[in-house]
Each structure stands twice: as structure tokens, then as C-alpha cells.
Amino acid sequence: MTSIDLPTPHGPARVEMHCAPEGRAALLLGHGAGGGIQAPDLVAAARAARDVGLHVALVEQPYRVAGRRAPAPARQLDAAWLAVAEALGSGWFDGLPLVFGGRSSGARVACRTAAQGQAVAVLCLAFPVHPPGRPEKHRLDELHGVEVPVLVVQGDRDPFGLPGSAHHREVVVLPGDHSLKADPEGVARVVGEWLDRVLRPLD
């Protein structure tokens, strides 16, 4: 594991690198709004990705690096994420396909930036479809806007809602709530199988 700081338009982001022996692609994973990169589902997904031959970069947004818990506005999150993706894509991961992903808020960032960042697939852990108890305030347009393969892994008791499957989008429901910490082995299994399958045509 290697930790590096990368400049973004909104301050430095911190990236924890977990490299596979021979990387076939790279997975960038972002954290939730109030949490960090050590969330159980992120750790499980990172392990699964390495097991199927992906380099993994766990990305800590600048507001977290600066010690703030309240998330930055969406446009700042997206700009910082794209700056990190560009730096990694032209450096550590030069020439490799990039998969964007994250949990909760990080999943939203991955969806919104997938096209501009030229991601080949998007992994969403606990995508927050709507605020708890407010289904009318949904964010499904962010999911619908992704035109590459998407995997959504959601807890069956997630108060933030459950998206449906759609063209390019698979949804897997596991036991648990928004944290997805009830079944980390299930998260790892689902993520590993999906990554291996969607990346096979690019090998």
C-alpha cells in the first residue's frame, strides 16, 4: 500500500494505492459523505478488485483531507475527482481502462463524472436513491445518465431506497442497511464477479 497526495482545484486529495501484481485495469473508489475510505464495503470491494487483477485507488476527497466532516458541494467533489482520475490515468495507470466507483455520495460522484472521465464501468455501493423518507427527491437521473456498465450493490433495508435494474445496469441486493457492513464477503463476491465479467472483453 502506498499513500500519495494529489493536487485538485479544491485542495489536495489523498489516494491510498493498492496495486495488483499485473493490473488489467484500475478501480478508483470514493467514500461516503461523512465517512472515510476504511468503510467495510469499500475495503471488501478493493480486496475483490485486486483479486481479479485490478489496481485500486481509494480516494479521499479534499474536504476530508482538510479535516472537515461536512461534504463539499457536488461541483467541487466532481472537479476534485476528475483531477485525481486524470493524474492517475496519465501516471500510475497510464494506458489502463479506468473503472469509477464509490459508496453513497462517492457513488453519485462516480456516476456524474463517468462520461467526462472516460470510465469503462461504474461501481455503486449503497447508492442513495433519495433522502430517507423522501422518495420524491430521487437522484435516479444520475444513474440513468451513465452509458457504460453499472453495478449497484444495495442493502435490503437501506432507508435511502433501492434503484431498479435497467439497460447497462445490474442491481444486487444483499442483507443489510446503508452501511453494507452486514455481509462484506457478499460484497466482495459480487464485485469481483462483476468486474471480471465486464472487463473480460477489454483484456
UniProtKB/TrEMBL annotation:
* Stored InterPro entries: AB_hydrolase_fold (IPR029058), KANL3/Tex30_Abhydrolase (IPR046879), NSL3/Tex30 (IPR026555)
Question: What Pfam families does this protein map onto?
Answer: Abhydrolase_11 (PF20408)
What Gene3D superfamilies does the entry give? alpha/beta hydrolase
Sequence ranges assigned to domain KANL3/Tex30 alpha/beta hydrolase-like in this UniProt record: 24-165
Q: PANTHER family recorded for this chain?
A: TESTIS DEVELOPMENT PROTEIN PRTD, TESTIS-EXPRESSED PROTEIN 30
- Name of this chain's protein: KANL3/Tex30 alpha/beta hydrolase-like domain-containing protein
- Lineage, broadest ranks: Bacteria, Bacillati, Actinomycetota, Actinomycetes, Pseudonocardiales
